[in-house]
Write a structure and sequence with these properties.
The protein is of the alpha/beta class and 677 residues long. It is built from 27 helices and 17 strands. The protein is 48% helix and 12% strand.
């Protein structure tokens, strides 16, 4: 079926694109546009209008085509033909006008947008530069500064902002096509094309200064800097040369490791919320949420649910705790108001939808009850028992545990099929990851409802089975363990942290521990001690820090030292001496490690643990693991996640690294079947 329709209405061509869901510029759309333009010229149409059916104008290219040889007609040629056409072409813009859609709008001669339409060049998020003139036409419309910002950041701007910058002819509240008709009727001659426009000069150091700022935020991603460079070409060359250079770079980047990884992440995000177990399963309706526990986690969960339009009741132990929890949630809502995330009306609506008390009877009408108390089995079991007395038999009981077994937490509960783990990440109103943990009893509708809730509160839901730490924290434990082995054998905390930052992570493992608190890991290690294999190598340096009450930033010291009111880590001689003393006591001859050795071993143990998680049926797919690490632990998106990164390295290479790791710490690792040689 042809996704492009042409109609000649008394000398005005009407071209309609209908390629759901986002009217992407697929090969069929490109060919349809060429055919429509030929028809309009054949019919001697003076003017033409391009419109899109559905909720949006063209919102990008067909990404599924990017891994294949480009098919004619090529998008730059389509837009050049549009721009050079004797027909005066207008575009009716609504929804989100992104990537190839924005480039289409720029190639047209008249641009009119509905109020609220948003525009952007998101190619940078796929490791690319625009490939159909985006970096060359946009500076000619709105200036090089705004163009470089949009191309390097991928951010979207509102139609009014684009109009004010000179990028639109009009922004209208209603009758979009009627306004376009009036503009075309009044056009006495063919407008100046975008490619013919001059670019206002910028400061000599503008691009170099911007590049320094962007490079810091990019953390190893190359596309943001390349987009700045491409916009710079527009200020140095004519359009024809700049267009060719942009297209060549775009095509070259399609085959780059970073773009392939980013496209993997793009598609993984769309697949991760669709595990096989809930295929064709309907979610239950959810309007009322009960949260037990009003600490940082419970308050964050409450705020996330309120922002999604849900009614939330929070339960605490006594009146003073209720007051504190109420203030904590209100503070989060006020913060959203201050940052412009919600309006005054939105703030008032969320406050009205929130209540707080110490009586479990108030949970009688809840659809999902989430316990968010501290990580203690008996406390969580007690909360579940109390909730089960008052909520409906079909209401979902969820635990926010990070490590404990939800089956044990709900051991005394009837209808265990409605019990599910909902592992939020702190701060829960900001972090996107939500591990959805299925017990052996959890039924499909409970899981479908949990995934529906995740989508509603704008989280990336990932299905996990039951094991210690689920997907994310189980992998984190392996990652930290290898870091400790490296410490004992010759590395330093600052070297390991620097190596992993250079790899693309926002923080190294020891900076991260200081931020979150060493006492969390200490408690888990003590909990695991009775079942730890006697032959496994155990490094006690972190335990010794905790025994000295060096718990991280909040206590003023951990792996690093912290000055008053300053979160910047300072290398501490006391820690260096403690590490050296540990090595001496255990007869370890310390040696130097290169940053590459550190990175390789840390990524290899992550991939190995991920492969074991797949073998144990804790995760359904490797992409699920990648989404957990990207959205919950800051793994660089441009590397695609640890499983994708390991696949890029190659199984044999990872196996060789793991063999070295295993030799350095005998009897400490179980090598996944995938990496056994």
């Amino acid at each position: 079926m042809n996704p492009v329709f042409y109609h000649n209405d008394s000398g005005r061509a009407w071209v309609t694109i209908d390629n759901p869901p986002v009217n992407a510029t697929s090969q069929a759309v490109r060919a349809g546009l060429i055919e429509a333009m030929v028809s309009a010229e054949r019919d001697n149409c003076r003017t033409g209008v391009i419109v899109c059916l559905g909720k949006t104008f063209v919102a990008g290219g067909d990404i599924s085509e990017f891994g294949k040889p480009p098919q004619e007609p090529h998008l730059p040629d389509v837009y050049w033909q549009l721009e050079q056409s004797p027909v005066i072409w207008a575009v009716a813009l609504h929804g989100t006008v992104l990537g190839g859609g924005f480039e289409l709008a720029m190639a047209a001669h008249v641009r009119v947008a509905a109020t609220g339409t948003r525009f952007g060049l998101p190619e940078v998020n796929l490791g690319l530069v625009p490939g159909a003139g985006g970096t060359q036409r946009l500076p000619r419309l709105v200036g090089a500064e705004l163009a470089a910002d949009l191309a390097s950041s991928g951010r979207m701007i509102d139609a009014q902002v684009l109009f004010d910058a000179g990028g639109l002819d009009a922004v209208v509240d209603d009758d979009l096509e009627g306004h376009i008709g009036k503009l075309l009727d009044s056009a006495s001659s063919h407008p100046l094309t975008t490619s013919e426009r001059n670019i206002l000069p910028v400061a000599d150091d503008y691009f170099s200064t911007l590049a320094v700022s962007v490079e810091k935020k990019a953390k190893g991603a190359k596309a943001p800097l390349l987009n700045i460079e491409a916009v710079k070409w527009a200020t140095e060359t004519d359009f024809s040369e700049g267009q060719v250079r942009e297209r060549q770079l775009h095509l070259a980047l399609r085959d780059s490791e970073q773009s392939i990884a980013l496209r993997h992440a793009f598609f993984a995000e769309r697949l991760v919320s669709k595990p096989a177990v809930i295929k064709n399963v309907s979610a239950a309706a959810v309007k009322h949420i009960t949260v037990v526990g009003g600490g940082l986690m419970g308050a964050g969960i409450s705020a996330a649910c309120l922002a999604a339009g849900l009614n939330v009741h929070l339960i605490e132990v006594d009146e003073s705790a209720v007051t504190a929890a109420n203030e904590r949630v209100t503070g989060l809502l006020q913060g959203a108001l201050k940052r412009g995330k919600i309006t005054e009306a939105g703030f008032e609506a969320q406050r009205k939808a929130f209540s707080c008390g110490d009586d479990y009877r108030a949970s009688a009408n809840t659809d999902i009850a989430i316990e968010a108390v501290f990580e203690d089995m008996r406390v969580k079991q007690k909360v579940f028992v109390e909730l089960a007395k008052h909520i409906r038999d079909d209401a979902i009981l969820a635990t926010n545990t990070s490590y404990l077994n939800p089956e044990e937490i709900g051991a005394d509960i009837k209808n265990p099929q409605r019990i599910v783990g909902l592992h939020f990440f702190s701060p829960a109103h900001i972090m996107k990851l939500l591990e959805i943990v299925a017990t052996k009893h959890t039924n499909e509708q409970a899981l479908a409802t949990a995934f529906s809730l995740a989508k509603r509160i704008r989280k990336v839901g990932v299905l996990s089975g039951v094991c210690d730490g689920f997907i994310g924290n189980r992998m984190l434990a392996a990652y930290r363990r290898q870091g400790d082995y490296l410490l004992a054998d010759g590395a330093t905390p600052q070297q390991i942290d620097a190596a992993m930052r250079a790899y693309g992570l926002p923080m190294g493992p020891y900076e991260l521990q200081d931020l979150t608190g060493l006492q969390i890991g200490w408690a888990n290690r003590k909990r695991q001690a009775p079942t730890r294999a006697a032959t496994e190598r155990y490094v006690s340096i972190a335990d010794q820090l905790c025994e000295k009450e060096r718990f991280g930033q909040r206590s003023g010291s951990g792996w690093y030292r912290y000055e008053s009111n300053n979160r910047s880590p300072v290398v501490d001689d006391e820690v260096e001496q403690l590490i050296q003393a540990y090595s001496n006591k255990n007869g370890i001859q310390r040696r130097a490690f290169t940053d590459q050795e550190i990175q390789d071993s840390m990524i290899a143990v992550l991939a190995n643990e991920g492969a074991r998680i797949l073998e144990d049926d804790i995760a359904e797919r490797a992409l699920d693991i990648d989404m957990v690490k990207i959205h919950g632990y800051g793994f660089p998106r441009w590397r695609g996640g640890p499983m994708h990164a390991a696949d890029t390295m190659g199984d044999d290479a990872v196996a060789a690294i793991l063999a070295t790791v295993d030799k350095q710490s005998p009897n400490s690792w179980v090598i996944a079947k995938k990496y056994q040689r």
